[in-house]
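Fold in tokens:
===
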Amino acid sequence: MAKRVLVKYSGEALSGESGFGIESKILDYLARELKTLVEAGIEVGIVIGGGNFIRGVSASQGGLIRRTSGDYMGMLATMINGVAMQEALEYYGLDVRVQSALEIKEVCETYINRRAIRHLEKGRVVIFVAGTGNPFFTTDTAATLRAVEIGAEMIIKATKVDGVFDKDPAKFENATMLHQIGYDQALKDNIKVMDDTAIALAKDNALPIVVCNMLREGNLLKIIQGDSSAVYSKVSNEN
């Protein structure tokens, strides 16, 4: 069983069917799922995107807003999601810290690697927000970076599909799920697991990427515990 993991959610994951904002039912469900991990003695780091509010790439289309500013706006959106997740987890009795790559001390701690690791060792959930603190990097890359920095044994990308498929399962009935993929194959075939920078960083550090459906109740814990009934795809160098 993995002892320390990082779970990555998209911002859209929090918005439910609306695609915008935060849906309380989804937030509540995710908090309960994460609580099972902590109760099992697993040290948990979290990164949440900001796409349920704004995306830097989209905001900068048309040229009115510069890409750099658009990306910083996206970082602020991840702070909103991080604080919301903190509130939900604390509602269920967990000890949580939010650490930001941008300094905003009235809301959360500034990211310090040693402090983050110490929080994890004490059983606290650590939510990493504001990406890497730099424009032009996605929250997938930020999540992979933080996972490497804290020594996570795997990064779990919790999505709305069961794993990685050879084609879009929403469009093709004959789409086949790929249970095991190599880093090089994911990069070569342009499989949309994470962006190429995130995959390359994971490869360089031999960090397994697990892709799973966040809506499968209990699946996260099964994956981490190595339960054979868990449903997921794994990107690594293993055969």
About this structure: The chain has a mean pLDDT of 95.
